[in-house]
């Protein structure tokens, strides 16, 4: 899956468009919740050597998507090809997945869905007498 396909999925699923908030990094795009503005994904180019990717030309960039997950799932995902500790994010709660890698597309979309749910605005619980 490439960045365009990921953005197309997010547009169809949630009606969100990528936002490029960093003037110094125009290729970095954020997917946000419409109601809160909270991020659920960050897509950006990263130098392959920063991720420890062997066999790549020095300075070669790969697109990654950062996704929020529960810590036990982060640990599980790090054993998969194409998944890495989050680049420039909290590594306990976020992972980076290399787009276009061997990481299964269906699983990537499930993780995107989970990241969306984990970052959405919390609803207040009803009080006892409010039901």
Question: Your description of this structure?
Answer:
This protein is α+β, with helices and mostly antiparallel strands. The protein has one domain: Aspartate Aminotransferase, domain 1 (Alpha-Beta Complex), CATH 3.90.1150. Helix content is 29%, strand content 22%. It contains four helices and five strands, in the order H-E-E-H-E-H-E-E-H. It has helices at residues 3-14, 48-51, 71-77, 105-119, and strands at 29-32, 39-47, 61-68, 83-85, 94-98. A five-stranded antiparallel beta sheet has the order 1-2-3-5-4. Strand 1 and strand 2 (39-47) form a beta hairpin.
Short structural description:
This protein has 131 residues and is an alpha+beta fold. 29% of the residues lie in helices and 22% in strands.
Question: What would the average pLDDT be, to the nearest integer?
Answer: 90
Helix/sheet category: alpha+beta
Query: Which range does the strand content fall in?
Result: 15-25%
Rg measurement, Å: 16 Å
Q: Indicate the low-confidence ranges by residue numbers.
A: none
Could you say what the CATH topology is called?
A: Aspartate Aminotransferase, domain 1
Chart the SSEs and their pairings:
Layout: H1 3-14, E1 29-32, E2 39-47, H2 48-51, E3 61-68, H3 71-77, E4 83-85, E5 94-98, H4 105-119
């Amino acid at each position: 899956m490439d960045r365009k396909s990921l953005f197309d999925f997010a547009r169809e699923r949630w009606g969100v468009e990528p936002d490029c908030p960093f003037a110094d990094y125009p290729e970095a795009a954020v997917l946000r919740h419409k109601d809160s503005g909270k991020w659920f994904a960050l897509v950006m180019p990263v130098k392959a050597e920063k991720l420890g990717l062997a066999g790549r030309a020095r300075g070669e960039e790969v697109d990654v998507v950062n996704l929020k997950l529960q810590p036990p799932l982060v640990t599980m995902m790090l054993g998969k090809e194409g998944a890495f500790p989050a680049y420039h994010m909290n590594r306990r709660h976020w992972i980076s997945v290399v787009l276009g890698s061997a990481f299964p597309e269906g699983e990537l979309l499930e993780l995107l869905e989970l990241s969306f749910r984990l970052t959405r605005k919390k609803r207040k619980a009803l009080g006892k007498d409010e039901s």
